[in-house]
Amino acid sequence: MAPRRRRGGRDGSQDGNSSETDAPKNRPPNTAFRQQRMRAWQCVLTPKLIVSIFTVLAAIYLGFGAYLTYLAFTVRDISIDYTDCLKDAPRGKGTKAPIPADNVKSHFSSSALDAHPNLDPKKMSTWHVEERNVTFEWSGVTAPRNICVISFPIPEELPAPVSFYYHLNNFYQNHRRYVNSFNAKQLLGDAVSKDVIDGSTCKPLDLDPRGSGKIIYPCGVVANSMFNDTFSNPYNEQNSTDYVMSNKAGDISWEGLKDLYGETKYSRSDIVPPPNWEAAWPGGYTNDSKLPDLKNWADFQNWMMLAASPDFYKLVRKNEHEAMKAGNYRIEIVDNFNTTVYNGHKSIVLTTITAMGARNIWPGIIFLIVGGICLILDVYFVLSFFIWKPRKLGDPSYLSWNQPSAAQAGST
Question: Kind and range of the H or E element at 111?
């Protein structure tokens, strides 16, 4: 009897003699990789594995959290709020008044405070105001200014490196228009034309608001609002010596920031300083003053590194090599920056530095909380799986992905 022929396809073609060579050309090769038959590891979450995972996580988080907390508590620092110094402190060189205890915060060892009760910062810090001529480092101009003189004790030696910060509260540098209010080419030193600056992102501080038509250099709200209080080196009253701290670019600012700034090509007659820079440049950029050297002005570079939150610190001085001896110190502050107009506060902060930076207990606390949660879950699973409701586990070799494939079964 003749073999039965297959019926033709829809297109009328006959497939009676079809073979593997007649397969569509776009069919993937019959390999384990292309046909998704490669062996893969499947995690079986047995009680022992779960307990082991949480044990390891608890050990890591608790250990790292304890280390971070230890580092935070080894930091020694002092913070003094001098917002109301000009208003509340007595005036005159021979007069002093205690700083309110709420304005002083410090973290020193209890043993040092017990050994030197006369060096307790909260009880022994004082302030007064003097008025005398001051030469501004930025401009070289000498002018009479109010100086807030703060005296404070250090009960124990601060090991190097020692950093000096100012701390601003309730100042928002993260507003969208504020962030964009500068001209990058102008900061690089280019003499950007008046037509480009006028109406740019620097507005409303693009041209002289007094109507002269001159370009503000540097233009924009960011530069105009720069924190312009100046600080002396801490002066040791026992030894009559300064504890010298650097404020040079590269020491207190990132080295790469200098590449964003350059010496200006503007002529003095074409530019005016921002309105809030009047204290350092009274009368504008005259022949008796220096033009701002933005490339080497570290304080300005740090200010232009905008903070994400309204409560921030900026580094102003640093000593990386010499320890700060215990004793009574004095810092003179040329008080120019008014924070009361926006209900803000300003403080000075002297602090030691660890591998994780200045004092911040929250990273360690967060790690300890996560580690504690892992430890609680670990104990719960041990009690649940092995004591309260123990049960015999099935054989994982019977799981579907551990069974031989149909092709392998047929070949055997």
Answer: helix 110-115
Q: Which stretches in the chain have pLDDT values below 50?
A: 1-16, 18-19, 406-407, 409-410
Write down the pLDDT at residue 209: 86
Q: What is the pLDDT of residue 29?
A: 85
Helix (H, G, I), strand (E, B), or coil: what is residue 104? Answer: strand
Spatial CA neighbour of 405 closest among 87, 35, 21, 11? 35
Say how far residue 72 (Cα) sits from the centre of its chain. 16
- CB 337, CB 82: distance < 8 Å: no
Q: Which residue, among 180, 171, 183, has the nearest Cα to 225 in the 3D structure?
A: 171
* Rounded distance between C-alpha atoms, residue 206 and residue 266, angstroms: 15
Rounded CA separation 400/148 (Å): 79
Cα distances (Å, whole numbers) of residue 405 to 34, 38, 39, 41, 411: 16, 11, 11, 16, 10
Distance (Å, whole) CA 187 – CA 204: 18
Residues 236 and 119: their CA atoms lie apart, in Å, by: 13
Question: What does the alpha-carbon distance between residue 377 and residue 213 come to, in Å, rounded to a whole number?
Answer: 70
* Cα–Cα distance for residue pair 205/214, rounded to 1 Å: 11
134 and 145 Cβ atoms separated by less than 8 Å: yes
Find the helix packing angle between 47-74 and 362-383, rounded to 10°.
Answer: 160
pLDDT score, position 13: 47
State how far the alpha carbon of 372 is from the alpha carbons of 57, 193, 256, 356, 379, in Å.
Answer: 10, 61, 41, 22, 11
What is the reported pLDDT for 9?
47
Task: Give the pair of three-digit tokens for residue 299.
Answer: 């304080």
> Tokens 């586990």 correspond to what residue?
393
Q: Which has the closest alpha carbon to 85: 77, 72, 96?
A: 96
- Residue 32: DSSP 8-state: T
Instruction: Give the C-alpha distances (Å, rounded to integers) separating 182 from 172, 179, 199, 229.
Output: 16, 8, 12, 22
Strand-pair category, 271-272 with 215-216 = parallel
E-state strands within 217-276:
230-231, 235-236, 241-242, 271-272
C-alpha dihedral, 146 to 151 to 152 to 156, nearest 10°: 120
Give bridge partners of residue 131 from the DSSP assignment.
Answer: 146
